[in-house]
Write a structure and sequence with these properties.
Layout: H1 2-7, H2 10-35, H3 41-57, H4 60-75, H5 91-107, H6 115-125, H7 151-166, E1 198-200, H8 207-210, H9 216-232, E2 237-239, E3 245-248, H10 253-262, E4 267-276, E5 279-288, E6 291-296, H11 311-321, E7 336-339, E8 342-348, E9 364-370, H12 379-394, E10 397-403, E11 408-410
Parallel strand pairs: 1-2, 2-4, 3-4, 8-9, 9-10
Antiparallel strand pairs: 4-5, 5-6, 7-8, 10-11
Helix pairs in contact: 2-3, 2-4, 3-7, 4-5, 6-7
C-alpha cells in the first residue's frame, strides 16, 4: 500500500505519466504516420532513437506506464474479433489483458536503473513471443528509417545509447554515437519483380456478412467475376484473399470443376477451408492448367486458430468461446509452387509475419489475409510493416491480397 501511495502521489504520477507519453508516442508514431501516408525516414529515425533513449533513462515507474500504454496503442484491436464469436463483453477484458501483458514485458527493464542492463534486457525481449504472439518486435521501429532492421543492428543501437547514458559524466561521451555508424542502412536491397502479370484482388466483405450461409451464392459470384475480369484484362494469375470462398471448398465439387475450367486461362490462387479425415485446415487452393493443389497453413494464429495453453485448458476455452470447435491443424512445412517457371512460397496472413516462413530466403511470396476481423484499426498497417521488415531481411518480394484493407506489393 505504501508503494501504491507513492506511485500515485499526484506530482510524481504526472511526471511519470508525461515520461510514459513521450516514450509511447516516440515508439508508436511510425505506425500511425504509415497509416495516414505521412511516414518520413528522418522523423522515424529521430523518434525511434528517442523512444529507446527514454526506455534506457526514465524512472522505472515511467517504464511500467509506457509499457501499458504501448500495449493499448499497438494492440487495442486484437479483441475486436470476439464480437464475431458472440462474446463482445470480452473485448474490454482482452484489451486490458494486452495492456498489462506489455506493462510486464517492458517492465522487465524497470528492474534495473543501469542503462546497459536495460539495453541488454530490451535486446533479449526482442526474441520473446508471449503466448506465441510475435507482433511486438521492438526493432520494427526502424523499418522505415535510416537504420537497418537486423537483430545485430538493433543490438548495436541499444549498446551505443546504453554506453552514452552509462558514461553520462564523461565530456567526450558523444563520440560513442560513432558506434551507430555500422547500423546505418541507406542502400536498398536488390530485387526484381517477376515477369508475370499478377492481379491482387481486395474484397470488401464485412465479417457479419461473409460467414452467413445465405450470402454464399453472392460471394461465389463476386469471386468468379473477379476471375473473369482478370482474364479479360490479360493477367496470368489472380490472387483472392484468405477465405475468399467462406466454406470447405473441397465439399463443393461443382464449384471446384468450374474453377478448374477457368484455370486453363489463368492461374487462380484463393483462400478457403479444407477438411481431411475430420480435421480442419485453413488453406490456399491453387488452380492451374485444369488441376488444383492445396497449400496448408503451417503457423496458426494464437487464440484465433489455436489456443496456446495446456491441453486441458484448450478444450475448456474452445467449448466456451468457439462452440466446441477444435483447433485448426497444420502442415509440417511451407508450400512452394511454380507459375510460368517462377517459384512462389505460399503464406496465409499471420504466417507472413513469422520468420519461419522465410527459411531458404524465398525470392517471391504470395500472401492472403482477411483483415476484416480487426477493422477499423492499425492492424493492416502493423502487418504490412512486419512483412516489410522480413522482406528487407530476406530479400523477398511479397504479393499480398487481403479482405477489406492491406492489398499490395511489399518489396525489400
Amino acid at each position: 500500500m505504501k508503494y501504491l501511495r507513492i506511485f500515485f502521489k499526484k506530482e510524481q504520477f504526472i511526471e511519470h505519466f508525461i515520461h510514459a507519453l513521450i516514450i509511447t508516442f516516440s515508439f508508436s508514431a511510425f505506425i500511425y504516420f504509415e497509416k495516414f501516408g505521412l511516414s518520413s525516414p528522418f522523423i522515424n529515425t529521430f523518434l525511434a532513437l528517442g523512444a529507446l533513449y527514454g526506455f534506457l533513462s526514465f524512472p522505472p515507474r515511467s517504464i511500467l506506464m509506457a509499457g501499458y500504454l504501448i500495449g493499448l496503442v499497438w494492440f487495442y484491436w486484437i479483441a475486436y474479433s470476439f464480437e464475431y464469436y458472440n462474446v463482445p463483453w470480452m473485448i474490454p477484458i482482452i484489451t486490458l489483458f494486452f495492456a498489462f501483458l506489455y506493462m510486464l514485458y517492458f517492465g522487465m527493464m524497470a528492474l534495473s536503473n543501469n542503462p546497459l542492463r536495460r539495453a541488454g534486457i530490451l535486446f533479449l525481449l526482442s526474441f520473446v513471443e508471449p503466448f506465441d504472439w510475435n507482433w511486438m518486435m521492438p526493432e520494427l521501429i526502424f523499418v522505415n528509417s535510416y537504420f537497418g532492421v537486423e537483430k545485430w543492428q538493433f543490438g548495436l543501437i541499444l549498446l551505443s545509447l546504453g554506453l552514452l547514458l552509462f558514461f553520462k559524466d564523461r565530456p567526450k561521451r558523444y563520440l560513442l554515437l560513432l558506434l551507430l555508424t555500422p547500423a546505418l542502412s541507406f542502400t536498398k536491397a536488390d530485387y526484381k519483380i517477376p515477369d508475370i502479370k499478377i492481379k491482387l484482388v481486395e474484397t470488401q466483405l464485412e465479417q457479419h456478412y461473409k460467414w452467413q450461409h445465405k450470402n454464399q451464392g453472392a460471394i461465389i459470384q463476386e469471386n468468379i467475376n473477379h476471375i473473369h475480369s482478370a482474364i479479360n484484362e490479360g493477367y496470368e494469375m489472380v490472387v483472392l484473399p484468405e477465405s475468399a470462398f467462406p466454406m470447405h471448398l473441397n465439399y463443393h465439387s461443382v464449384l471446384i470443376k468450374h474453377l478448374q475450367k477457368l484455370s486453363k486461362q489463368i492461374t487462380i490462387y484463393t483462400g478457403a477451408l479444407y477438411t481431411e479425415q475430420e480435421q480442419h485446415f485453413n488453406v490456399s487452393y491453387i488452380f492451374q492448367d485444369g488441376k488444383y493443389t492445396i497449400a496448408k497453413k503451417t503457423i496458426l494464429v494464437p487464440f484465433g486458430e489455436y489456443i496456446p495453453l495446456p491441453k486441458f485448458m484448450q478444450g475448456i476455452i474452445n467449448e466456451i468461446f468457439f462452440d466446441g470447435i477444435s483447433d485448426f491443424k497444420t502442415a509440417d512445412e511451407a508450400t512452394d509452387f511454380e507459375v510460368k517457371g517462377i517459384k512462389f512460397r505460399s503464406a496465409i496472413c499471420y504466417e507472413a509475419t513469422c520468420h519461419e516462413m522465410y527459411k531458404g530466403r524465398p525470392e517471391y511470396m504470395i500472401v492472403i489475409s482477411n483483415n476484416g476481423w480487426f477493422l477499423p484499426s492499425v492492424e493492416p498497417v502493423i502487418q504490412r510493416l512486419i512483412m516489410k521488415l522480413y522482406a528487407t531481411r530476406y530479400g523477398t518480394v511479397i504479393f499480398h491480397a487481403a479482405n477489406r484493407e492491406g492489398t499490395g506489393i511489399v518489396t525489400p
